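Figure 2 data, in text form.
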Amino acid sequence: MDINVFRGLMSVILLLAFLGIVYWAYSKKQKKPFDEAANLPFADEDEDEKNHNQDESSSLENKKHD
């Protein structure tokens, strides 16, 4: 087997792998998980705001009890 045959086979294998990944990434089954992953940074901000609001309300309640 010549090195050029090996390089040709590797090119074909890598092209098929690339096309398989592209097909997987754009398949309709993956849309929902990718949308959820895209919104993760915004979900973290929502949780931070909720925690911040809860901290403020609890500190106000503590002041009322003092």
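Caption note: The CA atoms of residues 5 and 11 lie 10 Å apart.
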